[in-house]
Amino acid sequence: MAYKALYRKYRPKTFLEVYGQGHIVETLKGELREGKISHAYLFTGTRGTGKTTCAKILAKAVNCLSPVNGEPCLECENCRLVAREEATDIVELDAASNNGIDHVRVLRDQIAFSPSQLKYRVYIIDEVHMLSLQAFNALLKTLEEPPEHAVFILATTEVHKLPATILSRCQRFDFKRIEAEQIVARINDVAKDEGFTVSKQAAALIASAADGGMRDALSILDLCVSVSKDITEEIVTDVCGMSGNLHLNSLSDAIISGDASKALEIIDQLYTGSVDMLRLANDLSVHFRDIMVFKTVSADKKPIICSSEQLEVYRKKAETFEIKDIMRCLDKLSVCISSMQNANRRSLLEMTIIELCNPELCCDILSLEKRVRALELGGVSAPKKNEKKETEPKPQQKVQPVLPKEPEVLKEEKREEKKEPGLDETPVEEWGEVMKILAATCPPICGVLNGSRAFVKGQFLLIDAPNPMFKGMINSSSSTFRDAIRKAAENVLGEVYKLGPYIAKKTGDDQDPLKDLAEKLRQFEIPSNR
Q1: Phi (first) and psi of residue 464, to 5 degrees
Q2: Beta bridge mates, 122
């Protein structure tokens, strides 16, 4: 006899054997006990979660001659006929390959005939979302008023593609992803029956790779058994083409230390070992997601699928990574994964890793904040090339934020108004106090304003900042930075000012009145809600 795949050999025969869908099987069993059989069911959910399996069990149960508590007895003639797949009254249609209107018309013509062997004619239409619009329209009337002897069971992974008219005529059941603990339990049961061993780490890794699908988990287990009867974590990693926790840990270490060279060496090793770069990007994204969850979730039981040794690794990494750095990595990897379909996957992943190792190459706000934090601490995010590392690390000293210098005092100190020659603006001598408040309330803008000074002109607070990034931040669509400066200035100066960049006036005959007017207009900030 030909070899039978594990997911087929261990397909559940009753509702009791179905894993992870208790809310569905209990409802179906209750309806069968009370004889409330619907004419149309819709099973929806991700792949491998039991939709087709439950459809086959339901088809067997509605035709069982001696049902037991809503379950098929498996002993009567009808149950044995269905089990041998010899029942002509149970029709399975794959809509992916039979999606035309002609196929539905044939089905519609056949449904008028009474069952020849069983009590009900059951039509199981898999991947029903693949039907054409004309086929849906042909099926619509039949679903609305089917014969009493007909039962339709529609299964799909993409329920959003179904017309509302079809959805409204079906009793819908949503299949959820099966929990990792239940998949691990099923793997151990199958391994025990088949006579091979699966390590705890290997079972957890298979459950993680299956992504909530029991069929995928048993298929992976089938592949591993062909390699060895003693399944280890290394075998699962090789069979699935995964990068493995060891390489992912090393890769994330290289990213946090800013070692792009080491990171690219790891990618090259994995590429040489035939690891798919899209799979690697996804694995690395899951890796950072698990670190994020470990750092964020305070409960003892965290929603992470891994061994106890890897949990300890995540704990240490969570102490090393800042949550903003984790979010930056996840954001960059997300963009990388979505762009990999029509690009050189290896080059795209290497570019992304280099950007993660070198925040100065990125222009997003998270990378900017990382660079500002590094400046505030008086260090750099990563060692530069050819820079010698210290053999003995010195204890890190707590460095106060670098505050800007006070505005230079004018030579004419006895002048009552203390104005610079030829200017109408009054210097803000308390600007250092404003910066102290900003250092506590908004460190990014404090770092950008390093070395700045300010002037008051009427109802405007004009800021002269040497950093060219200041104008872009102050004129951005977000009002966070403007509000922080305005509030800090109000606490010190006691008044609410509008903000604008300081522009020095020209002197001499070269001054253009039109340019002077344009510069004055540019001083006014973009209106924002205060």
Answers
A1: -105, 100
A2: 90, 151
Q: In which element (H, E) is residue 336 found?
A: helix 323-339
pLDDT, the chain, mean: 80
Per the rule left: phi > 0, alpha: psi between -120 and 50, beta: everything else, 129 is: alpha
Q: Which residue from 127, 140, 121 is spatially nearest to 94, judged by alpha carbons?
A: 127
Residue 123 has pLDDT above 60, yes or no: yes
What are the b/e assignments for 453-479, b being 16+ CB within 10 Å? bbbbbeebbbbbbeeeebeebbeeeee
Alpha carbon 447 to its chain's center:
31
Query: Once rounded to an integer, what is the mean pLDDT over residues 96-122?
Result: 83
Q: How far is CA 84 from CA 124, 151, 198, 497, in A?
A: 17, 20, 32, 83
Q: Three-state SS across 439-459?
A: HHHCHHHHHHCCCCEEEEECC
Of 189, 204, 198, 242, which is closest to residue 224 (Cα–Cα)? 198
The count of other CB atoms within 10 Å of the CB of residue 366 is 15
- The closest of 451, 473, 490 to 526, measured between CA atoms, is 473
Half-sphere exposure of 19 (CA within 13 A, CB side): 23
Top-confidence residue, 89 or 371: 89
Q: For residue 44, what is the enclosing H or E element? A: strand 40-45
pLDDT-derived band of residue 54, with 50, 70 and 90 as boundaries? very high
Contact 210, 217 (CB under 8 A): yes
Q: How far apart are alpha carbons 525 and 502 in whole angstroms? A: 11
pLDDT, tens only, 370-419: 666 666 665 544 444 444 444 444 454 444 544 444 444 433 333 334 44
Give the position of tokens 């900017």: 368
Element holding 155 (H helix, E strand): strand 150-156
Task: Say if residue 364's pLDDT is above 50.
Answer: yes
DSSP readout, 46-75? STTSSHHHHHHHHHHHHH-SS-BTTB--S-
Among the ranges given (141-145, 162-166, 235-239, 404-408), the one the predictor scored with the smallest mean pLDDT:
404-408
Tell which phi-psi region holds residue 31, choosing left (phi > 0), alpha (psi between -120 and 50) or beta: alpha
DSSP assignment of 485-514, as one string? HHHHHHHHHSS--EEEE--PPP-STT--HH
Q: Based on C-alpha coordinates, what's the Rg of the chain?
A: 34
The CB-side HSE value for 409 (13 A sphere, CA atoms) comes to 7
Residue 420 has a pLDDT of 44
What is residue 187's predicted lDDT score, i.e. its pLDDT? 92
Q: Say which residues have a Cβ less than 8 Å from residue 19's Cβ, sequence separation at least 6.
A: 12, 50, 178, 182, 183, 185, 186, 214
| Nearest CA among 46, 48, 8, 44 for reference residue 24 | 44
470 has pLDDT over 90: no
Three-state DSSP state, 156: strand
| pLDDT of the residue at 520 | 54
Q: Is 360 exposed, middle or buried (0-12, 13-18, 19+ CB in 10 A)?
A: middle
